[in-house]
Design brief:
By secondary structure, the chain is mainly alpha-helical. It contains 4 helices and no strands.
Length: about 80
């Protein structure tokens, strides 16, 4: 699954906390916590936060934990 094919609405829901996932990757968990804090302080930058999260997934997509996290997103998001 190409990460770029996951709609931005799904990434926005992840960052906002509207949709909760039990991610396995520690780097995803840390970045997500940071992005949620940034979103609270500056919601107008949401598109940048989405890009940052997507880039992290793309950069580390070969790691097994990130692959599992991508699978969770695509399954729950109804993309499979």
């Amino acid at each position: 699954m190409e990460i770029s094919r996951i709609p931005d609405r799904i990434w926005k829901d992840i960052i906002s906390g509207k949709t909760i996932y039990n991610f396995e990757s520690l780097s995803v968990k840390i970045l997500l916590s940071s992005l949620r804090l940034k979103l609270q302080k500056n919601p107008t930058e949401e598109a940048n936060y989405v890009s940052e999260l997507k880039m992290m997934f793309e950069k580390h997509q070969n790691l097994p934990t990130v692959q599992n996290d991508i699978k969770k997103i695509t399954e729950k998001g109804g993309m499979l």
